[in-house]
Design a protein that fits this description.
By secondary structure, the protein is an alpha+beta fold. It contains two helices and two strands; from the N terminus they run αβαβ. The two termini are 28 Å apart.
């Protein structure tokens, strides 16, 4: 929820973000590169900046299931 709030605020200011939970699998590399001591826990990270809409990587659209396949709406 903390990252979500920052990500929403960033979008409101015209920035793009990307949450990165995978770095938690490599805490020693993150600690080394960012000079973080071992008494801190690496949980996740976030990239922030301006997306390049012309970059091929930013055109990826993963397949998605239909809303009705994972949600049920009750009247």
């Amino acid at each position: 929820m903390f990252l979500q709030t920052i990500m929403l605020a960033a979008r409101a200011k015209g920035l793009h973000t990307c949450a990165e939970a995978a770095i938690a699998n490599y805490p020693d590399i993150v600690r080394r590169e960012l000079n973080i001591t071992r008494d801190w826990i690496v949980i996740c990270g976030m990239a922030m900046g301006y997306a390049d809409p012309d970059a091929v990587v930013n055109t990826f659209q993963p397949p998605r299931i239909e809303l009705q396949e994972y949600a049920m709406f009750l009247d």
